[in-house]
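Take a sample.
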Amino acid sequence: MSVVARPLDPSTLLERRSRRRFPLALAVEYRLLGKVERRGRGQTRNISSTGVLFEAADRQPLSGAIELCVSWPCVLNEACAMKLLMKGRIVRMEGRGVAMVSSQHEFRTAGPARSSKLQDLKLLTFRP
């Protein structure tokens, strides 16, 4: 009996993630939590309610507990910028790509929205 190698068909693969990931490129700032605190910047590749894959600006290894602040693309009441604060732990790092699982997340206000960005964001405005 011989085994013939066939290319994988992506449509037949099962998605193992429990939450849908959204491919968003948003600015992030991170802070490693622990004995030695370290800060950095980067950009998200994708995000879900339980985790984030982001690209760190530097290539230094990251591990352990992390706090991530994501610049959110929506403006609250057409006036106030938003940010998403996530806390969790790093589960893997490949090159500059860092995957974290979130144990806590919340939206916070980030001060007045800049008027130059306000026109671009009006379609994304959140109205309670």
Observations:
- The radius of gyration is 18 Å.
- The helical segments are 115-121.
